[in-house]
Specification:
The complex is a heterodimer of chains A (385) and B (290). Chain A is α/β, with parallel strands linked by helices. Chain A is built from 12 helices and 14 strands. In chain A, 46% of the residues lie in helices and 17% in strands. In chain B, helix 2 packs antiparallel against helix 3 and helix 6 packs across helix 8. Classes of the chains: A alpha/beta (385), B mainly alpha (290). At the A-B interface, helix 2, strand 7, helix 7, helix 8 and helix 9 of A face helix 1 and helix 10 of B.
Amino acid sequence: MRVLHRFTVTAAIGFLALLSVGHRASAQIKIGAVLSVSGPASFLGDPEKKTLEIYVDEINAKGGVNGQKLQLVVYDDAGSADSARTFATRLVEEDKIVAMVGGSTTGATLAMIQVFEEAKIPFISLAGAIQIVEPVHKWIFKTPHTDKMACEKIFADLNSRNLTTIALISGTDAFGKSMHDQCVAVAPKAGINIALEENYGPRDSDMTPQLTNIRNKAGVQAVVNPGFGQGPAIVTRNYHQLGIALPLYQSHGVASKQFIELAGPAAEGVRLPAAALLIADKLPNNDPQKSVVVNYSRTYQTKTGQAVSTFGGHAYDGLMILVEAMQRAKSADTSKVRDEIERTKGYIGTGGIVNMSATDHMGLDLSAFHMLEIKSGDWMLVPGT
Amino acid sequence: MAELLQFISSGLTVGAIYALVALGFTLIYKSSDIINFAQGEFVMLGGMTTVFVALAGVPLPLAALIAIIVTTAIGFALHRLAIEPARGASPVALIMITIGASIFLRGVAQIVFDRRFHSLPPLFGADPIQFGGAAILPQSLVVLASATAIVTLLWLFIDRTLLGKAVLATAANRLAARLIGIDTRRIVDFSFAVSAAIGAIAGILITPIALTSYDVGTLLALKGFAAAMLGGIGSALGAVIGGLLIGMIEAFAAGYFSSNYKDAVAFLIILVVLVSIPQGLFGRAKVERV
């Protein structure tokens, strides 16, 4: 009697266990995200995390992808490339994701590339530097405009204002360094002469010595600041403090209202290349991006109470490109999804119109960038750009 | 010449920040021989609490006062709950406890506040004051003035009041102080509380210049410690001079050399000081009678 009782209980438990295992295996597509939600890149990672969560919920509410629900696994690397790599390994080996949308910073992304190439899992990065997609890695894609494009857009604007001699003040973080190198490489072709190069650490609280050197350098007509996070905000404040009247250009690494809040009145007149998302309501009605960016802006603002930033927009684009690729592939198989991501054509996103190919894993061209100027604490489109 | 003036003014700005942090280290060390690595977190708590209480609608001066009171209470709690129960432990163990406390405070700050950067409006406006071709922010002068005021008050306190003498006595020989009737536990409570208050005031004053976020404490604590060592740990005047010196050396290194190695300056100084003049510039070498 006792043996039969024990056998029945064991069988019942085993049956229930089998049921639950079977249930979990078929219902969810696991997507991973390693983002810099805290730390010096928090104004990149925080909107990215919120965007992914909002839209995964929306997609699941509409029935998911190919009849399966999405499950998002987010880890916070706090701006550290080492942590990012550890989390990437955990996502691949323990969480067993089928795709990754993440890597808020260039440093974190570069550290994770090898993990995803080896695991053969598609990785859509949200970081800026051109090395992420040049040379092309089979499984690595990205949504933000590259630093090289930012340099080219800034130099084009300088040319239109007849300014030829500039000084660079760059952050020593991976993005700042990469964009600095790209600007140096592209400058001769654009007819720009770089008279002085200074740099600062990403956690420095005072850049007046470097800016004093720039102010005292003869012939400098404009200053460009490659970098992101708190550094450019402090550079801008110090710039104003020292009374430097020359035009200041930032990169798309500051494309968030938080930069304007932190830099305060010093941000007035600063120019930067950015995606149409920041001026969503001011776009002409026939602009192909208008409905996408206005929808995203409204959803993000209503659900989070915060102003929209291009970083959240890049996360939105990354998720949608992935989801559309899965729908075209009609499966979550990593190889098929990767092939479909590479075949993305005419995708209208917050960053621009994306046309990827085997040699171009980003898919944006210079028309995806607009030159913006900060006026009265808000973004304004510089006409004709 | 204008360039040199600007570097000096930048150096003094940053240096005043380090000086205030170093003062906190000095006071606790003076009364209990402990290096409190949670000092940086007191600075962070002062700034962040003010920002968040002000965001909740409280007028700024009241928010600052609340922040100082909260941070003082946390400093008191740190001593009573973490240091005092372990008072028989070796100095290294006590230092590790303070490092643990700093990590704990940092973690709690992330949850209670948030992970973004924040600023506060400066006391006297953001227009820089021009002199001789250089520009200094009025807020930097406020920080410098406060550092001077705090040092003076501390000196007056230690030298002219009975409680101040009791602090010195506790630092010199804890057992002897207890034997003559000094409540050493209250004395160390007091020094932790005052250190926390100094840290909080520093945090509130420097946020308009250097911004604040939940993790500014770490680097500030290390540089403040370097400043305290350079000036002579245990000497309040040394702490201020040490802070100003480190600030200026950093500014000169960034201006004349390369900004890449600016952060290394403070740590290089720690090494040099510990190797060649461990008592610092104003400290006295420890002499023991055998």
